[in-house]
Design brief:
Layout: H1 8-11, H2 22-50, E1 61-67, E2 75-77, E3 88-90, H3 93-98, E4 102-104, E5 109-112, E6 124-126, E7 128-131, E8 138-146, E9 153-160, E10 170-175, E11 185-189, E12 205-206, E13 221-224, H4 231-235, E14 240-247, E15 250-257, H5 263-266, E16 282-285, H6 291-294, E17 299-306, H7 308-311, H8 314-320, H9 327-333, E18 342-352, H10 354-363
Parallel strand pairs: 3-6
Antiparallel strand pairs: 1-18, 2-7, 4-5, 5-18, 7-17, 8-14, 8-18, 9-10, 9-17, 10-11, 11-13, 12-13, 14-15, 15-16
Bound molecules: 2-acetamido-2-deoxy-beta-D-glucopyranose (7 copies).
One 2-acetamido-2-deoxy-beta-D-glucopyranose (NAG) binds next to loops.
Length: 393
Amino acid sequence: MKKTAPPATAARPWYDPRGWSLLTKSLVGAGVVVAIVALIVGLVEGLKSSSYPNYSALNYTLSRQYSGSSFFDEFDYYTATDPTDGFVQYVDSSTASELNLTYASSSRAVLRVDTSPANQTSGRKSVRITSKQTYESGLFLFDIVHTPYGCATWPALWLTDPNHWPEHGEIDVLESNNKGTQGNAMTLHTTSGCKMNGKRKETGAPTYTNCLNTANDNAGCGVTGGKATYGEEFNANGGGVYAMELRDAGIRVWMWARDEIPDDISNVSSRPDPSGWGEALADFPSTHCDISAHFTNLSIIVNIDVCGDLAGATRYYTDLYECPETCTQWAAGNGANFTNAYWEFNSFQVYQTVSASGATATAASSGTSSAGMSSSTTSPSPSPAQGQQQEGA
Ligand SMILES: *[C@@H]1O[C@H](CO)[C@@H](O)[C@H](O)[C@H]1NC(C)=O
Ligand SMILES: *[C@@H]1O[C@H](CO)[C@@H](O)[C@H](O)[C@H]1NC(C)=O
Ligand SMILES: *[C@@H]1O[C@H](CO)[C@@H](O)[C@H](O)[C@H]1NC(C)=O
Ligand SMILES: *[C@@H]1O[C@H](CO)[C@@H](O)[C@H](O)[C@H]1NC(C)=O
Ligand SMILES: *[C@@H]1O[C@H](CO)[C@@H](O)[C@H](O)[C@H]1NC(C)=O
Ligand SMILES: *[C@@H]1O[C@H](CO)[C@@H](O)[C@H](O)[C@H]1NC(C)=O
Ligand SMILES: *[C@@H]1O[C@H](CO)[C@@H](O)[C@H](O)[C@H]1NC(C)=O
């Protein structure tokens, strides 16, 4: 009798694919594909996390300057209800002049909170101004003598398109609250698809990396500077200069105390060149965020809110800063305590490349209302929750 040949499978070692069943073959085939895809994704992600944008020098020329006694002429006064729930009445241009809440001379511009002792039961008077000119890109120099601070205050110097928030993005160059001793918070707020989880070159401390407005209670993606970057410590030596560069490669913020300002900024006849300034305080590279798609049509906004979603929150007002009573009770009746609640500026300057300033010249016509003419009846309706909310500290 002839021996029956053993089944082929039994004769072959396990690693010989000729002995595999169809199912095994398919499983192994799928496994190989998955492994290859994973390897490619890993390589791309690895490259992305080590990749960094090209911030090569741009040729900047001065395109606009805000200074002197006409400082406020280039801004509209916002008079509608505060979208961030502040205990505040934002006043129009003529009321602001009357109460000296905005004041400009040949050498400086001041914005302050009303310090009158009257119990301001419907909100303390303050100002919020929006530049008529909008911007797509540029190098913004803010020469600041005094930053506002004190219980109940929520000051900010920021850029956004109030009519298209968050679609057109928000860049908070300076933001603080209450006693302002925790350092300046620099933050981006965007729609989805903008993250700061790649390589960065900055001296500040990053907080969240997702810039999406609906993530983390609209905390945005932030970077916090040291204590000397805001408040009493920053003001002590006559303030200094903040520079914010907005370009396709990314957004960077630098800060210098008065006696450390680089020559290419203090020398009026030279062109500022960020490539010589060293590491930024905050760096928001374009690696995982299409900057030009997320940031467009931005106005410069300066305001001092009172209480509201950030400064009035118990964890800041009471727990962190140990301020008295509740924020609104205290802010209503203690006007004399708002004497440090003011911004003082020497000037703002906007530098752009020749092509960018040409492009924004056409956008300049977008400003419709003129300073001094705003009233609550003609003001645009407030935008939904303005993204100033911030997980500071
Ligand atoms: C960065 O861009 C500049 C100007 O386009 C170019 O000259 C330079 O070679 C680029 N550097 C790198 C590392 O790609
Ligand atoms: C920068 O632009 C100005 C004109 O706006 C020009 O005179 C100058 O040569 C340019 N500099 C460089 C380095 O390209
Ligand atoms: C208005 O404020 C400025 C800046 O603080 C100050 O110098 C000026 O004296 C004030 N004017 C009045 C009338 O109080
Ligand atoms: C200012 O800059 C100009 C042009 O770059 C230069 O000629 C001049 O020497 C500079 N002045 C000082 C005081 O550095
Ligand atoms: C740009 O912003 C201005 C002021 O907020 C607004 O009136 C205008 O409609 C905006 N333009 C675009 C194209 O979004
Ligand atoms: C201010 O007004 C509120 C509400 O009317 C009242 O509760 C509070 O006691 C007043 N504060 C002062 C200091 O008058
Ligand atoms: C309010 O002002 C008074 C008088 O200057 C001061 O003693 C007090 O500490 C201030 N309170 C707060 C919370 O700033």
